[in-house]
Amino acid sequence: MKSLKDALAAGRRMFGFNIRLSRTPETVAIARSCGFDWLFIDTEHSALDLDTVQTLCLAGLAAGLSPLVRVPDASSAARVLDIGAGGIIVPHVETAAEAHAVAQRCLFAPAGHRSLSGPLHQLGLAALPTREIMRRANEETVVVVMLESPRAIANAEAIAAVPGVDILLIGSNDLAAEAGIPGALDDPLIEAAYRTLVEACNRHGKQAGMGGIYNHDLMRRYLALGIRFSQGGGDATFMASAAKARMDFLRGLPDGAA
Fold this sequence. Notes:
The chain is an alpha/beta fold. The chain is built from 12 helices and 8 strands.
């Protein structure tokens, strides 16, 4: 898992594959073969259960794709980490206090208050000394908080200063909706939010992330601001767009009738 942090620190752009509908490890293999860097396993907006999440996480670890799991809230973070997630993504974080609470649930003492569970999948279930497990898990676990409202963006500086938080990820669609401009992801307000986020992250040694934007022109514009951690798309949209393109082609063929 440390490779994701190291790659970002080295200036590489790292793109995630969203999993919301898929249930099998083959999806992870497809993501890997297409060149994605990490997995966005979504349990906030899906029916994925813990068994399925673990299967996807372990497949990600085996394939060299960092499996990050978006949980509905931070209360389930430790359990998801215990079953193999390399990191946690918590939505709707609006204040430094909320971000601090997230980090506390994801990290072992002295950095946090995560409960010990024994050998970890992320460390190959190796029977390591407890101190070594705690140290390495804290180094390698990726803690991501999502900023999805104007209030959160206003608090970006304070949130970026929270120890233990690695990445601040804008949920662009929810931000636009909360700002009263649903769907207007090209609005100057959204670009201003990304500029604010990047500046705050740069000042505090954190990474700025982009979520929910898949229009190529907008991706190019916002990534150029200095964002290196981004969702790249996912199972539902890729399947729908490819299926639609194929049917547009098939329906456009001549009838062939005599």
